[in-house]
């Protein structure tokens, strides 16, 4: 391999001059440690401006206290490449600094040491590289985890129906909010579309090409919340990934993190979240250092945070910090103009999905409008999907008995004796029953997930997971 090329028109090339002007800090010494060449930047880095160095050796410079240790001398002694931090003395105007040097030996044909060439980087450059490296690592871990995370998520929100004046107002406001980077707090009953709205904000923000990370704070067991949100270092706790892991905030770097059910965050975590919002820094569990994270926060809750503040269940300072831009999404029963367009949207979606062509009876439309929809749009989605599947003919006839109790629902499946056509596989029948039962429990408990979970005898996080699975 040839490393040096000379052409007709660069015969006068003077390599010494090029080395002297090089951006890199370069020092060449001979086998007796005499200085042969300094690049201008090396002179600056070692603070030797104006010093007469002709005929001087590295020993002389060390004797005069310019620096304390030399990788060039180490390299001469060990006859191999050596690296290390070299502390450079301060002066009246400049404080002591350090450079990272690497010295490489150059041997002649007989294996005798001829020169040592030393390259170095100063502190500022090293800090710059360290920061770049950290960002690179962050991005690498981010993208590694994102694919895993996204694959676990339910499908995207698809078409967003906004026929009512109140939803149109919300969406208009969202378009404005999207452009700013402020924290947003979305409130509204379960299933009204808080996540849909937060995705809309992200999709219309300058961060739209970055990741959107939805997190259901209520579904994460209390003792794991910190590790999930902020990540953890090696050996932070038993059962953890032995290499440590980035948290969801790091995953959302440059994008948006959607903190759903923020009211379920334990108080200890609330103060940590407040710190993150104030400083833009997170600290992995078990770590000592803080890391900068640039994630826009959109939070949501179906609880009354103000009341929680008065009861001491939610930090007042966090509430005010989150409540910079409050958005209230009305329950479906208060925006009836959305009911029929939503019903048709879901009907079309499920007809397409199952390759069917069902229609809704006139009676159904009236019933949909009269119903109070305690589970809001999620409930509607489930009802329509269910009727599309279980209606044998082409016309769907949906009716509701709002007075029906959950306990009655257990034995009161509509239709024939068994309640479902026998053509439905057992798994679908069981899923359908579970869905109805959960809906009935939610209806009985006025949409409160905590109460419904109690009635059903399952943990709140378990119920959240079931609801998410159901759509
Ligand atoms: N305006 C809308 N247009 C179309 N679909 C909607 C709309 N609003 C909600 N949905 C659908 O309803 C379901 C529930 O919405 P979403 O998950 O956003 O509600 P949520 O308020 O975040 O619920 P929770 O509080 O339980 O997390 C989803 O399947 C969503 O796609």
Describe the structure in your own words.
The protein is an alpha/beta fold and 471 residues long. It has three domains: 12-127, Beta-Lactamase (2-Layer Sandwich), CATH 3.30.450; 153-330, P-loop containing nucleotide triphosphate hydrolases (Rossmann fold, 3-Layer(aba) Sandwich); 333-470, Orthogonal Bundle (Helicase, Ruva Protein, domain 3). It has 19 helices and 16 strands. The chain is elongated, with a radius of gyration of 34 Å. The two termini are 63 Å apart. Adenosine-5'-triphosphate binds next to helix 7 and helix 15.
Topology at a glance:
Elements: H1 15-21, E1 25-30, E2 35-38, H2 40-45, H3 58-63, H4 71-78, E3 82-88, E4 97-107, E5 113-122, H5 123-152, H6 165-179, E6 184-187, H7 194-203, E7 212-216, H8 225-230, E8 231-232, E9 245-246, H9 248-251, E10 256-260, H10 267-279, E11 281-282, E12 291-292, E13 296-301, H11 305-310, H12 316-322, E14 325-328, H13 339-354, E15 359-360, H14 362-370, H15 376-390, E16 395-396, H16 406-411, H17 426-444, H18 449-456, H19 460-470
Parallel strand pairs: 6-13, 6-14, 7-10, 10-13, 15-16
Antiparallel strand pairs: 1-2, 1-5, 3-4, 4-5, 8-9, 11-12
Helix pairs in contact: 6-7, 13-15, 17-18, 18-19
This protein binds adenosine-5'-triphosphate.
CATH architecture of the largest domain, by name, is 3-Layer(aba) Sandwich
- Provide the structure class: alpha/beta
Which strand-content bin applies to the residues? 15-25%
The number of strands is: 16
Low-confidence stretches: 404-420
Mean pLDDT: 84
How widely separated are the two ends?
A: 63 Å
Determine the CATH topology of the largest domain: Rossmann fold
How are the strands of the largest sheet arranged? 2-1-5-4-3
Percent of residues in helical segments? 40-55%
Largest sheet, described in full?
5 strands, antiparallel
C-alpha-based Rg, rounded: 34 Å
Overall body shape: elongated
Number of helices: 19
Give the distinct bound molecules: adenosine-5'-triphosphate
- CATH homologous superfamily title of the largest domain: P-loop containing nucleotide triphosphate hydrolases
| Integer count of domains | 3
CATH class of the largest domain: Alpha Beta
